[in-house]
Write a structure and sequence with these properties.
heterodimer, A: mainly alpha, 2 strands, globular, B: mainly alpha, 79% helix
Chain lengths: 291, 308
């Protein structure tokens, strides 16, 4: 019984982690940017969905759409206001752009977090789930919303796979992650590809944020932990490797659920961190990363 | 080195320190208390700049070093009642060991991977403190029975003296041949190695020096506060402030980092009337500096001087 409970809860959490981390790793793979405002964008999406439902009195579907839309806008703003100016700056030496992008997006994330706290307070907000109710699976009481979360995550990741591997745009994105210079030589505009990727990222982060808001609830305090968890999942899986992140998300999700159920919820994050340190020592490039 | 003592930077720094030293004669204890904290933060930022600006190691976990030093000193004083100075010294030594532990992955992995390891180190320390609450006081914080002194002026002078000495040592080190080798190995390790320099040895030394000053400053800070808590010396947000200070003041300048830290803390205080927006404004200003003056305050000033 407990095993089944862990299996079901762990799956939903892992799927959510996977969705959150996929966009993050996609951006790194294509443009080499580690976006430390990731958590802030997810929280912005969830809070927007919450505000749309409880302040503007929209129905849950429109609320979710508003959330995803806000995430998309914030993601584009991150790219145009922070990342692009740093990448194009002549005063920053190339080898230091990485740290400047990290610092810049970190500050940007803090700004978003503070604005959310200012306008919507620090209180935790739970977005009304699209599907309510509880079902019993082999004796385990499971909220319908949890199943919905898992299904949506898997669907979106599946769609992303189709987009990247089966469409022309997707192939251009894939090519840019392998060899940016080669792509420019083929006559494709790199900036356009980056814009597409940031768009995909915004949608993914938005969906993940809204689902998280329905599943666990968010507050402006979740910004840091969300960024950290996406960062560690992505590094565990190998920076830039989408399939690596998927595997890592499930490893981390189940490890956390196991610890929470079997030992104590207080120790929830510790085994995953230990595993991360261990992997860094043994295999610094992550599970499926390339150097 | 000799040219430094005749340079304008030296005289400006000297003038600043002299003016700062006379402050307790005519400003209130409140301002002194604020500046005392700012000076300890300045040392954090300078120690971080030695690692980032010179050794080229992106350390996201300055608070791992600071927190280890601070908590070791605090726990020793709390549990065994040893003298304050012994505790501070042992705290700094514990921090050196922590620096050594942190340096090990740095010698294997680079860039973002190393950055993450340091971030994880902070999270581990934080978890450790919360889990072993009996020893560390957990989330509430650790009460420390002894303080160095309760006189605001004396505390201020200790902090100022400590920052000045640390700045002199760290700046001297960064301008010395060792600093140049560090800078070279940070920018191009392969070539620096090919020139016959032992990169591993130099980087280890940089970590140990950085850890020593971070730990010492952290230990002094908790004996000033009379308490050690996750929120003041370990939290990732504290580390972010240290990094922002260093970048704001001008990376690779050491002295600029201290300037940035003082600015950050004083600005945070001035913005207190704006309430919850204070952090937002400070972050926005820092972001603008990062975007438009990537050299930071001192970097911009120095490059103008070099041009004229």
């Amino acid at each position: 019984m407990l095993a089944l409970q862990i299996l079901i809860d762990g799956f939903a959490i892992s799927a959510l982690y996977a969705l959150g981390a996929t966009g993050f790793t996609l951006i790194f793979g294509v443009s080499g940017v580690l976006n430390l405002s990731h958590g802030a964008i997810m929280v912005a999406a969830a809070v927007a969905a919450w505000a749309a439902a409880s302040v503007l009195h929209l129905d849950t579907y429109s609320g979710a759409l508003v959330g995803v839309g806000v995430a998309l806008i914030v993601a584009f703003a991150t790219y145009f206001a922070v990342v692009k100016p740093i990448q194009n700056s002549r005063r920053i030496p190339n080898e230091e752009k990485e740290i400047f992008v990290l610092t810049g997006t970190l500050l940007w994330g803090i700004m978003i977090q503070e604005l959310i706290a200012y306008f919507f307070t620090n209180n935790a907000k739970t977005v009304l789930p699209i599907i309510e109710g509880v079902v019993t699976i082999f004796g385990v009481r499971t909220p319908r919303n949890e199943i919905f979360t898992a299904i949506v995550c898997c669907l979106v990741i599946g769609l992303l796979w189709l987009l990247v591997n089966r469409t022309r745009t997707g192939k251009a994105v894939l090519a840019a992650s392998m060899n940016p210079r080669g792509v420019t030589l083929l006559g494709l505009e790199l900036t356009q590809i980056y814009i597409v990727v940031w768009g995909i990222y915004g949608i993914l982060a938005g969906i993940a944020g809204v689902l998280l808001g329905m599943f666990l609830g968010v507050s402006s305090y979740s910004v840091g932990p969300l960024t950290a968890s996406a960062f560690s999942i992505v590094v565990l899986g190998g920076l830039g490797s989408v399939s690596g992140s998927l595997i890592a998300a499930f490893v981390v999700g189940y490890l956390e659920t196991l610890t929470a159920y079997l030992i104590s919820p207080a120790y929830r994050t510790i085994p995953a961190l230990l595993l991360l340190v261990f992997v860094m020592y043994i295999r610094p490039q992550g599970l499926l990363g390339r150097r | 080195m000799a040219s430094f003592f005749t340079s304008r930077l030296f005289f400006i720094s000297l003038a600043c320190v002299v003016v700062a030293a006379t402050l307790p004669l005519y400003v209130s204890g409140y301002v002194l208390g604020l500046l005392t904290v700012a000076f300890y933060f300045g040392v954090f930022a300078m120690a971080w700049d030695l690692l980032f600006g010179f050794a080229g190691e992106v350390n996201f976990g300055p608070t791992f070093l600071i927190g280890t030093g601070a908590y070791t000193a605090g726990i020793l004083n709390n549990q065994f009642g040893w003298s304050v100075y012994l505790c501070i010294l042992l705290g700094a030594l514990a921090s050196v060991i922590a620096g050594f532990v942190l340096a090990l992955p740095a010698l294997r992995v680079r860039g973002p991977y190393f950055g993450l390891t340091t971030l994880v180190a902070v999270l581990m320390l934080q978890n450790f403190i919360v889990v072993f609450a009996d020893l560390t006081g957990g989330e509430i914080g650790l009460t420390i029975p002894d303080v160095i002194t309760i006189n605001a002026g004396a505390n201020y002078w200790i902090a100022l003296g400590f920052m000045t000495i640390s700045a002199a040592i760290l700046y001297g080190l960064s301008q010395s041949p060792v600093g140049l080798v560090l800078q070279a190995s940070g920018q191009d390790p392969v070539q620096a190695g090919a020139l016959g320099f032992n990169i591993v040895k130099h980087k280890l030394a940089a970590f140990i020096v950085s850890a020593f000053f971070s730990g010492l400053s952290g230990a002094l800070l908790v004996f000033y506060f009379g308490t050690a808590s996750v929120g003041t010396v370990v939290d990732v947000a504290v580390g972010v402030n240290v990094i922002v200070s260093a970048v704001l003041g001008g990376r690779r300048t050491v002295l600029g980092a201290a300037l940035g830290a003082i600015f950050l803390i004083v600005a945070g205080e001035f913005l207190r009337p704006t309430g919850e927006l204070a952090t937002f404004i400070v972050s926005a200003v820092a972001l603008l500096v990062v975007l438009f003056f990537p050299g930071g305050f001192l970097g911009a000033a120095l490059s103008r001087e070099a041009r004229s």
